[in-house]
């Protein structure tokens, strides 16, 4: 006898369990500084976010005990400075996250931080030297550590003094500081009020020369103007010396100005020939930088035996497109012709854009921009007399065209006069024709009147 067995069916259910790495808590503070008598809020969270987490809070080392034996479900407020961190936990038994990164909280103390600028200038220029200081009221320098905050691209070191030997525009910005007590952990002053540092491009003093044209016995007065005249500037005065082989002048310091003058004016006595001047200005201790003005001139029309300028054609007024030659003569073989115009705002040498220099002569083609003062400069460092050339903005008439213009004028005159004579004669003859009939009618009228008078007389006689 055989036994038949039924087949055995076995069902197996598989579960997939994914085990993620232990999450890490994240700690945030709404402020890092606890104000006097106040507190800050600390918030702990777990990323990625999920439900059921509560948090342990710690201050000090990670081996320290939690601030509370109870897990908190939300943010906490603290009023003591220190290093804080947190971690999350959930489940039973409690599953803990990794600890957060620490966050340092400082308790603000009543001492006040102040930023000062030395020298205390309202405006600072490129290349000047300045010092920023962080000063704490009610405490010595040795008791504090310092921290700076700035909107500039140059962050100061954590010291109470920050010296900049040559400022640039990148140093412009707001500067704040605060102090932390060295021997009292996590106690700090509040941030100071900001001080704004504005660094401007290099200063360009402006020199004026009076009079601009010399006469015998004149003294020349130089004035040097800067934007902030009350900031302790010293002024330096120079006379320029030309060198035609070099596009630049050399400078000769005027007597009594080697150490600078506090006055922004300087008098030059006994100047009889054309001369160029400039001034310099500097401030601060030590005086690192000096800023120079442009060059301005005192011109003289008097001939100088060692350097003179002659103009051909020799006249004061010229016309557009005239050819004018400016020739230099004197005790030199090397020359250049220069000019100064209000349009150029500076002096320039005879060159392709306004003249052609050949030897010691500059040939110019006059135009509306040729109104200027012209002079020569010699290789021996001399200035010539100066000449003021003005140009009338019309072309000079061509003398060869004068006979043609005369003939054309006469022909036009004759053509206009002959019709006038004909018209006059015509009107005269027409007027004479109308006069005779009028006289006849007048005579007839008289005759009729006399006849009527005679008829009337006869009538009355009857």
Task: Give a description of the structure.
- With 462 residues, this protein is mostly beta strands.
- It is 13% helix and 38% strand.
- The strands form 9 sheets. Strands 2, 4, 6, 7, 8 and 15 form a 6-stranded mixed β-sheet that branches.
- The longest helix has 60 residues, at 402-461.
- The radius of gyration is 51 Å and the shape is elongated.
Quick recap of the structure?
With 462 residues, the chain is mostly beta strands.
Share of residues in helices: 10-25%
The main β sheet shows up as: 6 strands, mixed
User: What's the number of extended β-strand segments?
Assistant: 34
Indicate the mean pLDDT. Answer: 81
**Binned strand content:** 35-45%
Alpha-beta classification: mainly beta
> What is the end-to-end distance?
208 Å
Q: How large is the count of helical segments?
A: 1
Rg is 51 Å
What is the overall silhouette?
A: elongated
List segments where confidence is low: pLDDT < 50 over at least 5 consecutive residues: 432-462
